[in-house]
Amino acid sequence: MNAAPIRSGRLAASRWIWALVLALAYFATAKLGLELAFATASVTAIWPPTGIALAALVLWGRGLWPGVLLGAFLANITTDVPVYTAGGIAVGNTLEALLGAWLLDRVGFRPTMLRLRDIFALVVLGAVLSTIVSATIGVASLSIGDSLSEGTLSTWRIWWLGDMGGDLLVASLIFVLVTHWPYRDLPGSVAEAVALTVALVGVELVVFSNDVRAAYLAFPIVVWAALRFLQPGATVAAFLLAVIAVTFTVNDSGPFIRPSEDDSLLLAQSFSAVVGLTGLILATVSFQRMRAERRAQRLAHELQAELLP
Q1: CA-to-CA distance for 309 and 307, rounded, in angstroms?
Q2: The whole model's pTM is what?
């Protein structure tokens, strides 16, 4: 009996199961993001599914794209848009993830984010370029379905920046947490991680519970996280900062309140993404310095061993 067809069938079944898991994750986070849609029911400044889709297709293969298509379609068909509009939006979201994963693969992207070129590739190819596809197809689908309640350019801008934030905050977090497990080589200790988390949450609660323009107080703590806990610390700190900033901004509190709810959320998310990107770059530079020091020490020991009688 030939075992190859059986093995192939099992792999196909496993791929479809994981595609279904991806669809459920996409749907759940999409509904969470759509709860923050103000100007148009299907356009939100906060869109975590973009990062989930990109990370899944990069880490586990572009063959999982049906999960993105299904999750995006289910999320949009449960809103007030027509079926063909929901289908167009789902196609745009799927092509966005596929293009982002393909572009990153073409440049040799490594999800460990241990090189500066990987960070820049995620920013330029994933966050900036691939998201243009979803924003353009999505806005066109809304326009065809007569579902635009705001200007086309304004809606496109919110869509594009929302997807960009999803890639910068969520995709980077998933990349780092998956590839760096079990986090043995981090300089910081568990007690220090607890102290850092308490400090970050405490400072941000003070900042966002008042109207004082003091959001910059988060920078020293994110720098601390990047230096002592490298990429995992930088991405987790940025994500935690984003959760606090968005939560308070939605409730009309904090330094990012503007007349438009979407603009307020875009400012909160953009601030978190910029802080996180800065921390990630600092973590990568620190890691490269540590690696160079270890290499120099190893070479020194080898040279000493050769010279000693």
Answers
A1: 6
A2: 0.90
